[in-house]
Amino acid sequence: xxxALPLLLWLKGRAGQSEAVVFSSLALLRRxxxxxxxxxxxxxWLGLLVALACFIAALxxxxxxSETGFSEASGIEISIALDVSRSMTARDFRLYGRLVxxxxxxxxxxxxxxxxxxxxxxxxxxxxxxxxxxxxxxxxHDWLKRNLRRVEIGLVEDGTAxxxxxxxAANRLQRETAKSKIVVLITDxxxxxxxLGPLTAAGLAAKLGIRVYTIGVGSPGEQLLRxxxxxxxxxxxxxxETLQEIADLTGGxxxxxxxxxxxxxxxxxxxxxxxxxxQVRTVKEAREWFPWVLAAGLLCWLLTxxxxxxxxxxxx
Length: 316
Fold this sequence. Notes:
By secondary structure, the protein is α/β, with parallel strands linked by helices. It has helices at residues 4-13, 27-33, 43-59, 102-116, 141-149, 162-174, 198-207, 240-250, 260-273, 290-314; strands spanning 63-74, 77-83, 93-95, 98-100, 121-127, 131-138, 181-187, 210-217, 221-227, 230-236, 254-257, 277-288. The protein has a 6-stranded mixed beta sheet, with helices on both faces. α3 (43-59) packs antiparallel against α10 (290-314) and α4 runs parallel beside α9 (260-273). The two termini are 74 Å apart. The model has no long low-confidence stretch (mean pLDDT 79).
């Protein structure tokens, strides 16, 4: 070991081989040692990728489809003839838990019937000793209901002109063009006007192709009626046989309604018997989005590549 020490000292003093690479500075090595950033994450490349994605999406022609439905109704034309004679003041119906007269119940149920037939043109006639036109045949049911609320006892002289009411209602429908035409006759009495008999009027309606649905409202027997000189008790009845014959002659149906529920059920039955033909047409509309997607792609390209390149060429 003592002989090795002089040898190590001699080798330490000798010069080694020349350097393979000479660095004038260590700054280059420091830069090489620093971590490098991925160029695909640079704002320029990200902008170009977004622009490319927009161009590809524009070629796919994006669009949204909207559908709009249109209904074309072939409605039924209806003329309602409502009895407003003094006997309709008999209070033998209940509406919303309170006792009401026949006319009040009939008006309420008729208004509900109008809501069931939004596609039908409907008119209204009030009658007692003669017919009284309340509303022409119309699709404006809100206006029709406002006129219905104004119907009261005493519009015309008292009596029950069933034949004239059918003729008046049928005459209105004769001028209309619908394929199906019906009269709904609401009464609580027997015909008392001889000018035109109910069966004669029904025969004329049948020749015109008009069906008549008859509704007998109220309960027979002694009833308190509101007369001009006060309340009066009177025996009431109506001619069910004639109402049935009117319906049979015209191809309609006779209904008996002695309560608000049965009257409402009667109108629902008529609604089921007389259905409107309804055709629904669908229109599809396409909205194109590719111009907006293409414009977005061009804007991305312009901001990330086109505009900087142009500035580099034009500015010193």
